[in-house]
Amino acid sequence: MPELPEVETIARGLASRVTGDLIESVWLGSKPEPLKSPAAAIVDTLEGKRIAGVRRVGKHIVVDLATDRRRSRPSRSSRKRHSAFVDQGRSTQTESQWIVHLGMTGQFVVCSAAAEIAKHTHAIVKLASGRELRFVDPRRFGRLSVSAGREFAAAGSEPLEVVVERFLDLFRGRKTPIKSALLNQRLLSGVGNIYADESLFRAGIRPRRRVASLSRDQLRRLYRSVQQVLNQAISLGGSSISDYVDADGAEGFFQLQHRVYGREGEPCLVCRTPVKRVVIAGRSSHYCPKCQK
DNA sequence: ACTATTTCCTGGATGC
DNA sequence: TGCATCCAGGAAATAG
């Protein structure tokens, strides 16, 4: 279940492997669910473009696309003005993005064109290097889209970039349980079920607590916990639960640091009290009834 | 304007 | 062994 740390890990891995490569052709499967943009728009936006970079925005993977401009047709002014971007006989200009959301079970991998095509492969993008980018998603909660002309932006704030004053503003006065608020992507983009539970444990706050009932100090502590948990998870390559692997097929190790998620009935690592599991907003939520108030 | 609930999906686990 | 049922959850849709 890819959340911010997993998506960050995947995006970094892809960036180091496919940046600079050229998209030759695009194949899209017949299942329409994964496509948020019309199939024709996706094909038109991708084909013939150079990959300028791959990055994470919230839980989305953003592939920046650039159009090659041949040097044989330089305009006098642009040649001088854009000389910094001229690279190996071409200049590039970022102008559109390919957006990939992995949902629950999505995988976005780079592999040899000869590699066996996995079941539930919904998109194959052929690269000039002979490799392929593939989107595989059994449960089809993932989504593919393109954004041309305007810069793609997530609905909420980046949890690792938001300043504490803004964080307090986002949450202030809300009646919803803090767990629901952490999962709301319009507030913070990137926190999912695992990291919400882990952040709340580290902050000593029960998931059912109404946001409005939390003191400023508690919210400040939660702010630090969210950043701490996400940063540590990124440094460990994310959490490998069920089928998560990064762009190289390697597993992450943050699941070994989980203190409450998936530990129902097991002793709290601090006080030995059995970890409880309740359902909030249809999501299982894990907490220590003694350490979290 | 908010908040809460339901729905979409498949594979793996569980129960009889 | 086989078959039905349940559960996982991100986010859009729907309901309150």
Structural summary, described in words:
The chain is α+β, with helices and mostly antiparallel strands. It has 2 domains: 4-148, N-terminal domain of MutM-like DNA repair proteins; 164-287, Helicase, Ruva Protein, domain 3. It is 25% helix and 25% strand. The protein is built from 7 helices and 11 strands. β7 (121-127) and β8 form a beta hairpin. It binds a DNA duplex (16 and 16 nucleotides) through residues 1, 3, 33, 59, 101-105, 120, 137-143, 174-176, 180, 183, 185, 192-193, 241-242, 281-284.
Quick rundown:
25% of the residues lie in helices and 25% in strands.
This entry's quaternary arrangement is single chain
Structure classification: alpha+beta
Q: H/E order of the elements?
A: HEHEEHEEEEEEHHHHEE
SS element count, helices: 7
Q: Low-confidence stretches at least 5 residues in length (pLDDT < 50)?
A: 71-87
Rounded to an integer in angstroms, the radius of gyration calculated over CA atoms is: 21 Å
**SS elements, strand count:** 11
For the record, the CATH architecture of the largest domain stands as Alpha-Beta Barrel
Portion of residues in beta strands equals 25-35%
* Relevant CATH superfamily of the largest domain: MutM-like, N-terminal
How far the N terminus sits from the C terminus, by CA atoms, comes to: 27 Å
The average pLDDT value, as a whole number, equals 85
Helix content: 25-40%
Biggest sheet record: 5 strands, antiparallel
